[in-house]
Amino acid sequence: MTATQARGRWGEREVAHWYERRGGIVVDRNWRCSIGELDLVVRLGTTLVFCEVKARADDAFGGGLAAVGPTKQRRLRQLAMAWLDVHDAHGVELRFDVAAVTGTVIDVVEGAF
Fold first, then answer.
1. What CATH number is given to the structural domain containing 32?
2. Which of 26, 43, 49, 57 has the fewest CB atoms nearer than 10 Å to its CB?
3. What is the mean pLDDT of each run of 10 residues along the chain (113 residues)?
4. CB neighbours of 40 closer than 8 A, spacing ≥ 6?
5. Which residues are CB-neighbours of 14 under 8 A, at least 6 positions away?
6. Whole-angstrom distance, CA of residue 9 vs CA of residue 95
7. What confidence score (pLDDT) does residue 64 get?
8. Is 39 helix (H, G, I), strand (E, B) or coil?
9. Structural contact between residues 35 and 75, judged by C-beta atoms closer than 8 angstroms
C-alpha cells in the first residue's frame, strides 16, 4: 500500500468515526462494483448518506472538496443507485456528502450535491 492509499484509508476511518460520534451507523465501506467505488455509506435515522472522502496531507494541490466536480458527482449518484439496487434499500432519503481531510482536520459538507 502506498503512502497515499494509507492516508486515504486513515481518512475514511476518521470520517467514519466522525459520523458515529453524531449517531450514524456505517453500513458499508469501500463498496465496489463495475463502475467504481463508494467510500462510505452511513445511516443517519431514515437517511442514507453516501460520502466521498478526500484525504490529503495538505492543500498544496487544492482542497479535497474541489476534487468532486460534476463528473465525479454523476458517478457517485450512479454508484448510489447501484448500491441501493444490490441492497434492496429503496424508499429511504438520500444525501450526498463530501468529506475533506487535510492533515488532521475533517471538513464534512453535508448535502454537498
1. 3.40.1350.10
2. 57
3. 90 97 98 97 96 84 76 96 91 94 93 92
4. 12, 15, 16, 19, 26, 28, 29, 49, 50, 51, 53, 99
5. 101, 104, 106
6. 22
7. 67
8. strand
9. yes
| Domain extent at residue 28 | 3-109
Quick check: pTM over 0.85? yes
DSSP letter string, 51-112: EEEEEES-STT--GGGG--HHHHHHHHHHHHHHHHHHT--SSEEEEEEEEEETTEEEEETT-
Q: Output the pLDDT for position 63.
A: 67
What pLDDT score does 70 carry? 92
Find cell 452511513 and name the residue. Answer: 42
Q: Quick count: other Cβ atoms within 10 Å of Cβ 73?
A: 15
